[in-house]
């Protein structure tokens, strides 16, 4: 079996006449309309608006709380040449937000600078000490981007120092708001903007639009990067920002982005949301994780090509460091986690692990083990453990740790992610509480996260036309995920692993005369299972275009895979050797006592062997191995019905008997006449001569003689065969020898003479 990681939810909507009419009117695939209906777009106007995002659909920025007040104060500061500081954040959203706000103010002639906090020295968000330094340096107006909504102490300090603070933020609004001069937020209580899911750069873009009194199309590229990187909803206005932003990125005039795209291996004619998610955003995020994110703002805002080239290489080098750190720490952390497989939670730590990447490591451990995870770096000098936690769907990580928050040096976060610091004296308290909370709150009963399946389709349905139709729904992301399809191929083949550690998987799905490649990242461990289940797997995946050596094809990117059938490994052989009996934790099943006794001495010490009619499955075995071939399919079926689909079946089905079809009626008659006409036949000495004379295969001849003997047609004494006079007429088909041979031939037909696919089907039908 291969268990599914997700709970598959297939869209069961039947295409209605209304949907068909809309598809006809718009001239697009009914599948696209069906997907849009399932996502809440249920009339032609909403569908048109979604499919063709327009700049003019960006709403009036002054609808946002305190926008007028914020713009008036900024304009006043510009008129009076007050020093303005843009206070940003160190992730990709914060870097792009800072760049948009800074460039806007520069273009308006402001006396402006910016500050990006250092993750390690300044921490996240408004830092009162940094506010004090900034104000003492002459700043009289601080404009926050992508942070500030929880900066009560910092704002209070600024107010006391006669410095105004304008907060522009998108994070969750706390119960106690800071007393800032203005708070520009799409979800301000009682004054909500019509769309509330902006990222930090989305809010900054709205402020820039208001200040410049026009939509600043030159900032679309920055807005797209921050919006995609921050995983906010890619609907409504965000869809417009990203749609136009991707076009801007394809022809960006920013030398920093040009160089960064080149280093990321991106081609201008193929820039999409994945280019941001896997190319640009990780590189910008690496700056804040490894060193100083100020480099990112310089990179995005400079128009000096030489400076941009230098900064882009600095950024690329930091990203390489980040990747190596993640890989190195993950390797150590994964080994630690594998030593505690009996636990429902994971807490791992190491001396001086880089604090900037422990959150990424935690995410990778969750992906591998599907357990709530905390990864911490231990500082031997201070004795403090500092790190990040990531959760699984349905488990509130914040609540899990909040119960011992008084033991923490620092603690914060939400249900899916936390940050924390703890003294060494309290480490065991954290470890024990975390596990106890998980057990007491039913972590074993957690449901799998849902995977929404748009439609079940055939391999032959995957065409370039289908792919092109689906692109009408792009850009894809949160709340507008790429449609996922379910496949139930007739066969998977060409299973192979990829990557330095064989961690990835590639295979082909076949249906009749159609085939398609599938890539399954981080699923290399499934390779052997997939080969054993090649004719009974379900694949969920989305489509992607792949260009290799000038040839473009459509492939499936695997999102999940499962099979609820038994794994079958076909190793049928007419020879046995010692190496075939070295499997650990396996049960070897025999159908013949003679073979059982011969092989028993070679069975690996951590495995067991038994005859089929003495089967014991009280222990859990990794493999059930059928060594020899049964004499009847009923015996084989008896064993199959006693075992579980969770067991892997390995089939040797050793058989050294050459079985031909049943002798014909005329062959029986020929033998009978020969016995009647001859006496004292030396059957053992002359069997070959008799076989040649009667033109009957020797094995068949021996079988026929046994049948005659059982019917008392003949007698054999001391190797001499003679016919019995006047034998009673009997039915050959009722003899034990005939019945056994009939069963053996049936076994041969079902288990030995068939190809692998047919054998698998026959065995699975028995369950």
TrEMBL record:
The lineage of its organism: Bacteria, Bacillati, Bacillota, Bacilli, Lactobacillales. Residues 568-761 form the Single-stranded-DNA-specific exonuclease RecJ C-terminal domain. Transmembrane segments: none annotated. Residues 83-227 form the DDH domain. Signal peptide: none annotated. NCBIfam families: recJ (TIGR00644). This is Single-stranded-DNA-specific exonuclease RecJ. Belongs to the RecJ family. GO terms for molecular function: exonuclease activity.
